[in-house]
Specification:
Length: about 240
């Protein structure tokens, strides 16, 4: 089955046609820089442009960097605060003319990893942690999602986890791999102490360089790199409307 998935990020909005049975892209991804400011209307216009690029009219799955309850955004991470309280599904459905499902972006990535990637067939508690502009999280028990966990905002010491150990923080503070891995390790230890996952799956763009830091982590749970890398959010969003 072919569906369009869109991943709304702080720096780029990406879309691709997805084979939702195989969990892979059909053709190339299309990316447009996230408008600044990333107001609901400006983002909706960008999503509409991506839908038009693919000449697509079917069901649309969208990952949004926000807590999403029944299609309504309740928070706004790395996008404009006007998203808070916006019926994101209604907005994007009106902008595109497509039946639309909107979910938290990290949950979308986690769903893809559990169905098609590093979490496939995993029983027990699995935590997908996405490392990018912030830190996203998706928590599963025997394959069932607990939505909107938003663990990047958990305090590690006196600092939010995503301000301490996101990939953006690594770049901004020019941290070497050893120092950044130590910070990430602290975050994972904090998560382990509260949720005791059997496996961590580390996603986001930095997962492509996992050999530089994975061996430095001391957390007790198994830690593996995501298999779908930056494709996960698009694939997961598309799979929700298959």
């Amino acid at each position: 089955m072919q569906r369009l998935g869109i991943d709304i990020g702080g720096s780029g909005i990406k879309g691709a046609l997805v084979d939702t049975e195989a969990g892979c892209f059909i053709g190339e991804r299309h990316r447009i820089p996230t408008p600044q400011p990333a107001t609901p209307q400006a983002v909706a216009e960008t999503v509409r442009a991506i839908v038009a690029h693919f000449d697509y009219s079917g069901p649309l799955g969208v990952g949004l960097p926000a807590v999403v309850q029944q299609g309504v955004a309740r928070t706004a991470a790395n996008i404009h605060p006007d998203w808070i309280g916006t019926d994101a599904e209604a907005l994007l459905r009106e902008a595109t003319g497509c039946p639309t499902r909107v979910v938290n972006d990290a949950d979308a990535a986690g769903i893809a990893e559990m169905r098609f990637g590093a979490g496939r067939g995993c029983a027990g508690v699995v935590m997908v942690v996405t490392l990018g502009t912030g830190i996203g999280s998706a928590l599963f028990t025997d394959g069932q999602l607990l939505p909107n966990t938003e663990l990047g905002h958990l305090l590690v010491g006196s600092v939010e986890a995503e301000h301490y150990a996101s990939d953006a923080t690594r770049k901004r503070e020019d941290l070497g791999w050893r120092k950044w891995a130590a910070r990430l390790d602290e975050v994972l230890h904090a998560y382990q102490a509260l949720w005791w996952p059997d496996r961590f799956i580390l996603g986001g763009g930095v997962s492509k360089k996992h050999e530089k830091y994975l061996g430095r982590l001391t957390v007790e749970a198994e830690v593996v790199p995501a298999e779908l890398l930056n494709h996960a959010g698009i694939i997961g969003a598309a799979s929700l409307v298959a």
